[in-house]
TrEMBL record:
Taxonomic source organism: Hanseniaspora osmophila
Protein name stated in the entry: Carboxypeptidase S
GO molecular function annotation: metal ion binding; metallocarboxypeptidase activity
Matches recorded under InterPro entries: Bact_exopeptidase_dim_dom, Pept_M20_carboxypep, Pept_M20A, Peptidase_M20
Binding site for Zn(2+) 2: H163, D200, D264
Cellular-component GO terms for this entry: fungal-type vacuole lumen
PANTHER family: N-FATTY-ACYL-AMINO ACID SYNTHASE/HYDROLASE PM20D1, N-FATTY-ACYL-AMINO ACID SYNTHASE_HYDROLASE PM20D1
Catalytic residues (positions): D165, E235 (proton acceptor)
TM regions (residue ranges): 23-42
Length: 578
């Protein structure tokens, strides 16, 4: 699908109004004609819809190793046993923080010791898995597990990613939880399993171990390609210590495109308003950059004599308001996987978004953007977002601060870049710098420094880029062997009686996109097939990362059942590919 970036009439008009130099009448006339044509074109229909496989055209793949599939989905004893294993995993608080230091591997490494306890728990709970898989530790707590048989030597492995860490629990919020966050309580009355990490990401991690343990017990053995589990330990803090190091280790071992394919957390399977199911497979990620904007001001001193410009806090507050009032424009491109998802929803779930079907038929970008604006989870898939997450300044009530810092988190749209995002922020910083006689410098993620505006009489703005990540390459979808296996396995899973008791629910599979990032962002060179998808049933009120994080036994079992089929299916159906 070719990329298509439409002209943005609003931005063009804005730039025209802001021009301070005189321009010729002919130039203005020419520009007006271009803008008029653009507006008229947009009204008639400027949206080029991608040609894609119908999301309802995927057939179920009958599992090549049916084994215990029925038991996984319908046996009460298996369900309770699996839940107890997930509960035990939640009870080990593997919290990670943004400022966590590097692990040392020593027994007295207080911050990371729970990860050692967690890995001991996995070895005790899943002895069959650790008997079959080799287990290597990368950077002390990264888990790299490989199942290689005589028949699979020299073949490209299939890798399954997850992570051990969870976001911290705010101590002030504990009383708000229905059950303590690290108790892992299962309430059979409402079928909820409560606990921090029960969704992100211990459900996937334990599902991988449950499915593999059962496969081994039932006699499965890979014959086509090795199986890898690559399990990070700081994904919630950008993954630089865990996921990044594991990816580097695998790259050194297998080389570029050395893996057959990779899956990770991400997309789920949602139940539609019509009672059908749609699996949302994520083949790409938005970009990312944190910008730490620091103002070092010379206008400090005693609070009884405030400066005319208000000082560091006032200037930085103006910057925050200025950025807020100039959000990034949404842009729909045909290579955005979310557009294909909207086509699927418009055809098979017209109640998903009000006005979606009508907007899709009109092929008007503006109408489609209007239809998605009511749901931020969808609207943000087509734009760069900015979130002002941290503001620091001041230490004393009667002392004007010498410094103020604003941290702005960006999730970069597929059509944009880190550099374009930096330029957007810099435009606002420069406006305030000129107004208040401040110099401006940019420090890039690699440490390079650029002076953008020298000579500031009243201080200096420093814009520092952290954790910059360009939007990732889009993996192939319909027609690709691995994607087709994932899709067919999803359809078969949700046609089972547990999810489809009357046999009348349809199962669709579509590419999708996510507003967040995963450890997979570090694995780009290892495979062109990268899919962020657990297939687990979406729980609408799962409260990920907040009070009462929870899932259901049904969602948990859907993930186990899917993986129990997927692993043998890939082994059998990818034999002719490498």
């Amino acid at each position: 699908m070719a990329g298509y970036i439409p002209i943005d009439a609003k931005k063009a008009l804005k730039k025209l109004r802001e021009k301070k130099k005189p321009v010729s009448i002919s130039a203005v006339a020419a520009l007006v004609l271009v803008l008029l044509f653009t507006v008229l074109f947009m009204r008639k229909g400027d949206l080029k819809l991608p040609e894609c496989k119908d999301c309802g055209a995927y057939n179920p793949i009958s599992p090549v190793f049916p084994g215990s599939l029925n038991k996984i989905l319908n046996d009460e004893a298996f369900k309770l046993s699996s839940i107890s294993h997930l509960s035990g995993a939640v009870q080990i608080p593997t919290q990670v923080f943004d400022n966590s230091p590097d692990p040392t591997g020593k027994k007295d490494d207080f911050l990371w010791r729970n990860f050692t306890v967690f890995q001991d728990y996995l070895q005790k709970t899943y002895p069959l898995v650790f008997e079959k898989f080799s287990f290597e530790k990368v950077n002390h707590h990264g888990m790299l597990m490989t199942w290689e048989t005589e028949n699979t030597k020299g073949k490209k492995p299939m890798a399954f990613l997850s992570h051990q860490d969870v976001v911290p629990v705010d101590p002030t919020s504990i009383e708000k939880w229905t059950h303590p966050p690290f108790d892992g309580v299962y309430d059979p009355k409402n079928d909820y399993i409560y606990g921090r990490g029960v969704v992100d990401c211990k459900l996937l991690l334990i599902s991988q171990f449950e499915s593999l343990s059962k496969l081994i017990e039932d006699g499965f053995e890979p014959t086509t390609r090795p199986i890898i589990l690559s399990i990070g330990f700081d994904e919630e803090a950008m993954g630089s210590k865990g996921g990044a190091k594991l990816a580097e280790f695998l790259y050194e071992r297998y080389g570029e495109h050395g893996l057959y394919g990779i899956t990770d957390e991400g997309g789920l399977t949602a139940k539609t308003p019509e009672g059908d199911y749609i699996g949302m497979v994520i083949p790409s990620e938005k970009g990312y950059v944190d910008m730490f904007i620091t103002l070092d001001s010379t206008e400090s001193g005693h609070g009884s004599i405030p400066p005319v410009d208000g000082g560091a806090i006032v200037i930085m507050s103006k910057l925050g308001v200025s950025l807020y009032n100039d959000p990034y424009e949404p842009t729909i491109t045909t290579n955005n996987p979310a557009l294909e998802f909207l086509q699927c929803a418009a055809k098979y779930s017209p109640d998903y978004l009000p006005g979606l079907s009508k907007a899709m038929k009109s092929k008007s970008q503006s109408k489609l953007l209007d239809a998605t604006s009511s749901n931020l989870n969808i609207a943000y898939l087509f734009k760069t977002t900015q979130a002002m997450d941290i503001f620091n300044s001041g230490v004393k009530a009667n002392a004007l601060p010498e410094q103020a810092t604003l941290v702005v988190n960006h999730r970069i749209g597929l059509h944009s870049s880190v550099n374009a995002t930096k330029d957007h922020v810099l435009e606002h910083v420069l406006d305030l710098a000129k107004e208040n006689d401040l110099s401006v410098s940019v420090v890039y993620a690699d440490g390079a420094k650029e002076v953008v505006k020298p000579d500031g009489k009243h201080g200096n703005f420093t814009v520092t880029l952290y954790s910059s990540l360009e939007p990732t390459k889009i993996s192939p979808t319909a027609g690709d062997a691995l994607y087709e296996i994932i899709a067919g396995t999803t359809v078969n899973t949700y046609q089972q009686t547990l999810f489809n008791p009357h046999g009348n629910a349809s199962v669709y599979v579509s590419p999708f996109l996510s507003t967040g990032n995963m450890d997979m962002k570090y694995y780009g060179k290892l495979s062109d097939r990268q899919y962020r998808y657990t297939a687990a049933l979406l729980v609408p009120d799962s409260n990920i990362h907040t009070v009462d994080e929870k899932t259901t036994s049904k969602a948990f079992l859907s993930s186990i059942a899917y993986l129990y089929q997927l692993i043998p299916n890939i082994d059998a159906m990818s034999a002719d590919e490498d």
